[in-house]
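Changelog-adjacent note: as of this version, every example in the card shows the full chain rather than a window. The one below runs 290 residues end to end.
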Amino acid sequence: MNRPLVLDGGLATELEAMGHDLADALWSARLLADAPEEIVAAHAAFYRAGADIATTASYQASFAGFADRGISRAEAERLLRRSVELARLAGEIEGGETRIVAASVGPYGATLADGSEYRGDYGLSKQQLRDFHLPRMEVLAESRPDVLALETVPDVREAEVLVEAVAEIGIPAWLSYTVDGGKTRAGQSLVDAFALAESDAIGWVGVNCSAPDEVLPALEIARRSTPKPLIAYPNSGESWDSDHRTWIGATHLSADQAREWRTAGAKIIGGCCRVPPEEITALAHALTTT
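Full-length structure tokens:
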């Protein structure tokens, strides 16, 4: 059986384990300016753990967020490009046959730093969402990542904007929703959500930053909705408390679940928030066994 590609885990989780305080509106993107060598080290830790794919530290990066820190547009563009360069550098340092860089494009809600990516429906028009997403996607694409990761998308309307934008840019992409109770976080049908993968711009579709127990039912809907290969990278199972800016609850991510996702058609499997390198090692091992 061909093993799915293994995605990394929580980049911010590893950076926090290395001693960095990321209680900040820019989250891990702050370190693109302050400590780029630490981002390289975190990517390298996941590569050593068995990951084939590194996801860049650009998830929560935005021109508005950088501007709030007094960072110019030109410097913000340089930092976005740096996110790809640092992930690429980590792969070169660690070597190996497969080293893939996925440029992270988080939802609009992520840049608000208030948990909005777990609710969606921001009250913005599609044009406003396009004006937000397209420029940073274009800058990330300039650094030639292997793929754009349109991830943690809570809302079908925002997904439509992202899919249209990536079609214009002409770079491979995956589309990954955050889900709850068999619907998008904005309460929409997953059948409708996964149907957007029919665009030629989307190579993979699936779910991320959702509880592990939510993944298999969502993948089964996706498999019935599209022939595209699937992707799964949940969080640890804990919940984000946006008021106190902390994760609460128990972890329940298991290697046995990863095998079920593989059987359901997932060709890329990994972790998201609160999933450290050692968990990626366990997933990678599980995916090489029957």
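Structural remarks: The first strand starts at residue 5 and ends at 6.
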